[in-house]
Amino acid sequence: MKQPATPNAADETITEQNQTGAKQKSKKFPTPTELISHYQKRGLEPAEASIKVIEDLQNALVRVVSSSRNASSKDKLLTDARKIDAINGRLAVVDAKLETKPGYVETFVLGLASGTVLNGINAVWPHVTRGIGQVWSAVKSGTDPSSTS
């Protein structure tokens, strides 16, 4: 026995596309209340349906915004990437300079050492100047022709 011929699947998809194409031309966007009622019919609570509607609207907005970007936004993205690279390079230079600077403990030790050296110089300076003065007066009195008598 012969079975009846099954309808062609390609014919079904063509007719569905024609029907949806006609609907898309005259189709208006659903209102938020219609979307909420649609999700409530699927078994979601009103709060869950509202959240789902918000998620769908956000996703649609993201798709519209991301699809509206053209080549100029890609150039802007590359420009921003270059700026970020330049800033990163500057930060690397500043970081390298900061790593070579002494820390708090090292600065404190350097201050103590320099203070000790200055106190030592202040303690020795009067003796040095007195010695230089004595040498100067000895040389002066030895070379003075009036004092050779």
TrEMBL record:
Q: Where is this region: Disordered?
A: 1-32
Q: Which domain of life is it from?
A: Eukaryota
Q: What is this protein's record name?
A: Ribosomal protein-like protein
Q: Which organism is it from?
A: Arabis nemorensis
